[in-house]
Design goal:
It comes from Diaphorina citri. This protein is mainly alpha-helical. About 60% of the residues lie in helices and about 5% in strands. It has five helices and two strands, in the order E-E-H-H-H-H-H. Strands 1-2 form a two-stranded antiparallel ribbon.
Length: about 130
């Protein structure tokens, strides 16, 4: 940043890693390019917030989860606790797996209906011509 051709130093207490976490990468138009005010509390919050490791399910865990999904696609809290204990996963991970599975099931049912509707339409077009 310059004023009348004179460079003005910008003082900042964030190191390079903290700037990356805050989305202020070196080499861009720089700190303060956006209109938001980055305070010390926000930068310390980004320091303490570690990136969550993605859960990888074993074959045995998937078998238990899928078997229970076949029985009940929307288990209550007690059932989630029981399934979590059996699989060794947290209740929250188990809950999210069931949410995602219900969404996948709904998506596949929806796309299946669309395909059958398209097939009927094609059949009618062929038979009417």
């Amino acid at each position: 940043m310059t004023v009348s051709g004179t460079p003005i130093p910008i003082l900042c207490n964030l190191n390079t890693a903290e700037r990356r976490e805050a989305g202020l990468e070196p080499g861009r138009s720089g700190f303060g390019a956006d209109s938001t005010d980055h305070t010390d509390s926000e930068s310390s919050h980004s320091k303490s917030k570690a990136k969550r490791v993605r859960t990888t399910f074993t074959e045995e865990q998937l078998q238990v989860l899928q078997a229970n999904f076949q029985l009940d696609s929307n288990p209550d809290g007690q059932d989630l606790e029981r399934i979590a204990q059996i699989t060794g996963l947290s209740k929250r991970v188990t809950q999210v797996w069931f949410q995602n599975s219900r969404a996948r099931q709904k998506k596949h049912l929806h796309t299946g209906k669309m395909k059958s509707s398209q097939n009927i339409y094609l059949y009618l077009m062929v038979t009417w011509t």
